[in-house]
UniProtKB/TrEMBL annotation, chain A:
<dbReference type="InterPro" id="IPR016161">
    <property type="entry name" value="Ald_DH/histidinol_DH"/>
</dbReference>
<protein>
    <submittedName>
        <fullName>Aldehyde dehydrogenase (Acceptor)</fullName>
    </submittedName>
</protein>
<comment type="similarity">
    <text>Belongs to the aldehyde dehydrogenase family.</text>
</comment>
<dbReference type="InterPro" id="IPR016162">
    <property type="entry name" value="Ald_DH_N"/>
</dbReference>
<feature type="active site">
    <location>
        <position position="257"/>
    </location>
</feature>
<feature type="domain" description="Aldehyde dehydrogenase">
    <location>
        <begin position="30"/>
        <end position="477"/>
    </location>
</feature>
<dbReference type="GO" id="GO:0016620">
    <property type="term" value="F:oxidoreductase activity, acting on the aldehyde or oxo group of donors, NAD or NADP as acceptor"/>
</dbReference>
Automatic annotation (TrEMBL), chain B:
<dbReference type="Pfam" id="PF00171">
    <property type="entry name" value="Aldedh"/>
</dbReference>
<dbReference type="InterPro" id="IPR016162">
    <property type="entry name" value="Ald_DH_N"/>
</dbReference>
<dbReference type="GO" id="GO:0016491">
    <property type="term" value="F:oxidoreductase activity"/>
</dbReference>
<feature type="domain" description="Aldehyde dehydrogenase">
    <location>
        <begin position="39"/>
        <end position="240"/>
    </location>
</feature>
<dbReference type="InterPro" id="IPR016161">
    <property type="entry name" value="Ald_DH/histidinol_DH"/>
</dbReference>
<protein>
    <submittedName>
        <fullName>Aldehyde dehydrogenase family protein</fullName>
    </submittedName>
</protein>
<keyword id="KW-0560">Oxidoreductase</keyword>
TrEMBL record, chain C:
<comment type="similarity">
    <text>Belongs to the DeoC/FbaB aldolase family. DeoC type 2 subfamily.</text>
</comment>
<dbReference type="Pfam" id="PF01791">
    <property type="entry name" value="DeoC"/>
</dbReference>
<keyword id="KW-0456">Lyase</keyword>
<comment type="pathway">
    <text>Carbohydrate degradation; 2-deoxy-D-ribose 1-phosphate degradation; D-glyceraldehyde 3-phosphate and acetaldehyde from 2-deoxy-alpha-D-ribose 1-phosphate: step 2/2.</text>
</comment>
<dbReference type="GO" id="GO:0004139">
    <property type="term" value="F:deoxyribose-phosphate aldolase activity"/>
</dbReference>
<keyword id="KW-0704">Schiff base</keyword>
<dbReference type="InterPro" id="IPR002915">
    <property type="entry name" value="DeoC/FbaB/LacD_aldolase"/>
</dbReference>
Length: 479, 301, 337
């Protein structure tokens, strides 16, 4: 029995004023969709939060047309300075309404309030601030001669960082002069719809941002729409490949941020307590619903037992529960379907002979939950070392030499991120050179910044988001 | 009586060697038709590359990748410049082959060869500059050192232009390899001979074996295997323009299986157009085959 | 909270022999100590500070808060270490320790009063024999530690002879920073012998050691040499007791116990002024070292103004209303009105 008890310290939900149902945001206003409505539930309680419209092909067509009109008549004619001012306005409103967004994000997504409050929402605002400044400086961005927008951009985002992914997509698209049709994930549409209100408050010209809700069919309608000039997608590698096939032979461009199976590599000379923190943050941040999660711990064999022991002790202090509780470290799994997938893969891990351990914490009775879990004795050929679990499940593998660590780290079709923990500077730089990953965190993990390009090698997708590089996919250049 | 000259056998270029096609096939190559003639004069029997030749070439390119990508930028720049030097020393041969292949006047062919040589020089100079130009320190909001740098994508399949047998060919190879990629090139089907002479230049100018692999033959036969090859990281479809039986959309679709980076052919809609290779290049072809890697490290005492 | 077992452990242990054993050397040399200390895992500053900051965001239950405030009060070494200290001031401090809040006699007493060696007798007399409040004396040419070993030992013996229950010594930071770990070790070990039954707190003056790597090494060196407590600071140097530094020290005592089975205490001192801060430290103790350290035998706050803020919060919890300085009886009040 611990001497200390943390209070349930729930963030008040009174800051969020939810409608019972939401339409689609097209041409600056909410309109009824023509499809069936669907429910967005809170994954921590399974309560219905709101009813949301499913956009049909016709609705998507209306959104694309609105975006096209806004592009030709308003947005492409506006000065970069004025576009930037709209983005600054949006950034400010996001800051003003940060608490409301954070609570809603935690309600709809299941992530702990300390993450939505301290990471998702502040970073979302920061992305708008960052890109706002680029809008009138594109000719200085080394993008090539005469940078100019594609036109109408279709964007499809995932459920793991709903508002943050929206900001990664919309901010650079608008800064470069494109207009947008965006579809949030079907399980987490609510902050995108609240963002639509922000666009209204900012007096953003109608049609510049259009938000259509729905599931895969709605996304496919965006991908296939002939009025779309460019696509940006974050999600699974499977869907990313479908999109790449769909636009093959057309002139539509695409940016794809897809899956990962990152190696987090711990050497025997690592700053061990920080490495343990980094391992924990790497896999349990956002319930492991992170494409760049450090899901494969590669630990040098000479310190494997020591690291595992410390890791388990640390995981024992993690608190799983109410996402709105400020003391919660790990929230709810986003959906029943995702929980089922995590369960299936962990069962495969056990049946393939890896040793399973979890922290044995109590779980709430309703909602979707999974204990922080560690598999030891994992080898590269186990499914849990190859497939993206997208949950709070860590696979521990060992290595003997830096060469072996690199070989194992790169032994995957993915290439999104990697972690290195060692006090030896030259080894960090050598490892960083060798790793086939778009983001390499050395002696840290899961850090994000609007100025820092993010994106993968190999089957983790192509294109970069963030930084100067993040502008490139949104402009045409040359004569 | 004039001396009977010794004719060259044109073979493939794979892994730094000049093998015949594993299929044992060859095909007749003719000079561009002149005047009213239906067909030009017979030039040579070129090797007709097969899917297995392409497969072998990918193995060679993959094997050459670590060494070439790991070479210093200065070294790669010198090697590319050396290609220009060697081509200059073979100018008469290259001019003759371009004349034959493209039906140009001597002056025009000379100009094409000059531009092809100059293109190597242009790209050679980029080897130790593009990383600086395209990357740098990112001012993140926290105590972290954060830097982004461009790296080569890996093994690149290249469909070389059908029309421009030397300048176009150089214009697609140089931007791929200058950054450290290795490549497998499918040449113009009807104008393959300058490519093999270029291969001889590459082989004698310190370009490591396997960095550039050249297969003569029909793109329609070979390209689908490269597009679907899971150990190829990127594909340049520029040469789809005018290539008999090649559907670049289908190649792009096949490339999606392992999410290859695809450089589409020029043109609008489904049409593929061969660009004017005499235009001054920009960085776009080089950039098409780069990955940006971003490294974070805390700053502390 | 004080217990009769609250005396130094292992006073009779030969620190040098144990060190030889732990280091696996036949003779304890500076080289051997250097190799051992420099073989400790490094500390990444940014990661360490991020972890400390995240621990600072925990929110605790109201009932736990009550417990935490009382525990924090009981962990205080109520301190006065001024050149201007007089018997009157020390008696005032002792009286405050005996009755921290005259408006609520259920308020626990602090663990100790901490004074200069020449004030030990005064403090002892003022506290009486059965108060449970210890007397801690700073010694070894506090705060700089710049004196000969003979003087440092005499300083220690004087305080012990005068009845000090605990000795707060300073390490020779100059020797530490010069890499002369053996000197630091020997000084601690000798002072430890001079302490007899008094418990020894080893002040590392982390503000002068600057890096977390140094803090970790100094912590291990102090424990190896026989310190019963490792303590951050004299209070005379800024920065003093920061949460990240305390985090490093808590990791050190946790790992030391894993290695040797012996428990060593931790005392952050200087700069902890508010209840909110104190609770952050207790959360850190609980999550990093574990609940075994949540007791004034193993964790102390070196502080003076902290007590009054804890009393304010305690009154707030008892009465339900926010309180003010006029309701905190103090012999040396910090506000003039």
């Amino acid at each position: 029995m611990p001497k200390f008890e943390y209070a349930p310290a729930p963030e008040s939900t009174s800051v969020v004023d939810l409608e019972t149902s939401y339409g689609l945001f097209i041409n600056g206003e909410f309109v009824d969709g023509h499809g069936e409505s669907f429910k967005s539930i809170s994954p921590s309680s399974e309560e219905v939060l709101a009813e949301v419209s499913e956009a049909t092909d016709a609705d998507v067509d209306a959104a694309v047309k609105a975006a096209r009109t806004a592009y030709t008549r308003v947005w492409s004619r506006m000065s970069g300075a004025d576009r930037g001012k709209y983005l600054y306005r949006i950034a400010r409103i996001l800051q003003e309404r940060a608490r409301e967004f954070a609570v809603l994000e935690s309600l709809d997504n299941g992530k702990p309030i300390k993450e939505s409050r301290d990471v998702d929402i502040p970073l979302a605002a920061a992305h708008f601030f960052y890109n706002a400044g680029w809008a009138d400086k594109l000719e200085y961005a080394s993008l090539g001669a005469n940078p100019r927008p594609h036109g109408v951009v279709g964007q499809v985002i995932p459920w793991n960082f709903p508002l943050l992914m929206l900001s990664w997509k919309i901010a650079p698209a608008l800064a470069t002069g494109n207009t947008v049709v965006l579809k949030p994930a079907e399980t987490t549409p609510l902050t995108a719809l609240l963002f639509a209100e922000v666009c209204q408050q900012a007096d953003l010209p109608p049609g510049v941002v259009n938000i259509v809700t729905g599931a895969g069919a709605t996304g496919q309608a965006i991908v296939d729409h002939p009025g779309i000039d460019k696509l940006a997608f974050t999600g699974s590698t499977g869907v990313g490949k479908m999109i790449a096939r769909s636009i093959a032979g057309t002139r539509k461009k695409a940016t794809l941020e897809l899956g990962g199976k990152a190696a987090n590599i711990v050497f025997d000379d690592a700053p061990i307590d920080q490495a343990v923190e980094g391992i924990v943050n790497g896999i349990f941040f956002n319930q492991g619903h992170v494409c760049c999660a450090g899901s494969r711990l590669l630990v040098q064999e000479s310190v494997a037992d020591e690291v595992t022991r410390r890791l388990k002790r640390r995981i024992g202090t993690l608190r799983v529960g109410d996402p709105l509780d400020k003391n919660t470290d790990i929230g709810a799994i986003n959906s029943r379907a995702q929980l089922d997938r995590i369960i299936a893969l962990t069962e495969a891990g056990e049946s393939e002979g890896a040793e399973r351990w979890d922290n044995g914490c109590e779980l709430p009775s309703s909602g979707f939950w999974f204990r922080p879990t560690v598999f030891t004795g994992v080898t590269q050929t186990h499914r849990i070392a190859q497939e993206e679990i997208f949950g709070p499940v860590l696979s521990v593998l060992t290595f003997r030499t830096p060469q072996e660590a690199v070989a194992k780290a790169n032994n995957t079709p993915y290439g999104l991120s990697a972690g290195i923990w060692t006090e030896k500077g030259s080894r960090i730089l050598w490892m960083a050179d060798q790793l086939k990953a778009g983001v390499v965190w050395a002696n840290t993990f899961n850090k994000f910044d609007p100025t820092s390009p993010f994106g993968g090698y190999k089957e983790s997708g192509y294109g970069r988001e963030g930084g100067r590089h993040g502008l490139e996919p949104y402009v045409r250049t040359g004569a | 009586m004039a001396r009977l000259d010794v004719k060259k056998t044109y073979k493939l270029y794979i892994g730094g060697k000049f093998p015949r096609s594993e299929s044992g096939r060859s095909y007749e190559v003719y000079a561009a038709a002149k005047g009213k003639a239906q067909k030009g004069t017979f030039l040579a029997n070129a090797a007709q590359g097969s899917r297995k030749d392409a497969r072998d070439a990918v193995v060679a390119a993959r094997a050459a990748l670590p060494g070439w990508a790991g070479a210093t930028a200065y070294n790669r720049g010198q090697v590319l410049y050396r290609v220009a030097e060697v081509m200059e020393s073979r100018r008469p041969q290259l001019v003759q082959e371009v004349r034959d292949a493209e039906g140009l006047t001597a002056a025009a062919a000379n100009s094409v060869v000059s531009q092809a040589i100059d293109r190597w020089v242009w790209y050679a100079g980029w080897s130790d500059k593009f990383v600086q130009v395209l990357g740098g320190l990112n001012p993140v909001a926290g105590p972290y050192f954060n830097i982004s740098a461009a790296e080569p994508t890996g093994v690149v399949a290249v469909l070389a232009p059908q029309e421009s047998s030397l300048l176009g060919l150089v214009s697609v190879i140089a931007p791929v390899i200058v950054s450290g990629n290795t490549c497998v090139v499918v040449t113009s089907a009807e104008r393959p001979l300058p490519a093999i002479t270029l291969a001889e230049c590459l082989a004698t100018s310190d370009v490591p074996g396997g960095v550039v692999n050249i297969i003569t033959g029909r793109a329609a036969e070979i390209a689908p295997w490269l597009a679907s090859h899971r150990d190829v990281n990127a594909i340049d479809l520029s040469g789809a323009a005018g290539a008999d039986g090649v559907d670049w959309g289908a190649l792009e679709e096949a490339s999606a299986d392992n999410l290859k980076r695809v450089l589409r052919p020029a043109g609008t809609g489904t049409a593929a157009v061969e660009p004017d290779w005499t235009d001054t290049p920009d960085l776009s072809r080089l950039q098409a085959f780069l990955e940006t890697k971003t490294v974070w490290h805390p700053k502390g005492r | 909270m004080s217990t009769p077992t609250d005396t130094a452990v292992g006073a009779s242990v030969d620190a040098t022999a144990r060190a030889r054993d732990l280091l696996g050397v036949s003779r304890l040399t500076n080289q051997a100590l250097t190799t051992w200390l420099h073989g400790l895992p490094g500390v990444d500053q940014v990661g360490c500070e991020a972890r400390a900051a995240s621990l600072g965001t925990r929110s605790i239950k109201t009932t736990s808060k009550q417990w935490a405030i009382d525990t924090a009060i009981s962990m205080i070494d109520l301190t006065t270490l001024e050149g201007a200290d007089t018997p009157g001031r020390v008696r005032g401090l002792a009286a405050k320790a005996l009755v921290p809040d005259p408006s609520d006699l259920s308020t626990p007493r602090p663990a100790a009063v901490c004074v200069y060696g020449d004030m030990v007798t005064t403090a002892k007399q003022a506290l009486g024999p059965d108060s449970g409040v210890k007397v801690a004396a700073v010694a070894t040419a506090f705060p700089s530690g710049r004196a000969s070993m003979a003087v440092k030992l005499a300083d220690t013996r004087d305080a012990v002879k005068a009845g000090a229950d605990e000795i707060d010594m300073v390490i020779d930071r100059g020797a530490f920073l010069a890499g002369d770990y053996l000197t630091v070790f020997n000084q601690i070990a000798e002072v430890k012998k001079a302490c007899g039954d008094a418990r020894l707190k080893v002040i590392m003056e982390t503000g002068e050691l600057v890096t977390y790597d140094n803090v970790r090494r100094a912590s291990w060196l102090s424990m190896l040499a026989g310190g019963d407590f490792i303590k951050t600071s004299t209070g005379k140097v800024q920065p003093a007791a920061t949460l990240p530094v305390t985090l490093i020290m808590l990791e050190a005592v946790r790992d030391w116990r894993d290695l040797t089975g012996d428990q060593v205490g931790v005392k952050p001192a200087g700069g902890i002024k508010t209840s909110k801060d104190a609770i952050k430290f207790l959360v850190t103790v609980s999550e990093v070292a574990g609940d075994d350290w949540l007791d004034n035998r193993w964790f102390r706050f070196g502080a003076s103004s902290l007590l009054n803020d804890l009393l304010l919060q305690r009154q707030r919890l008892t009465t339900g209303a926010y309180s003010g300085a006029s309701y905190i009886a103090d012999d040396s009040p910090s506000t003039a009105y």
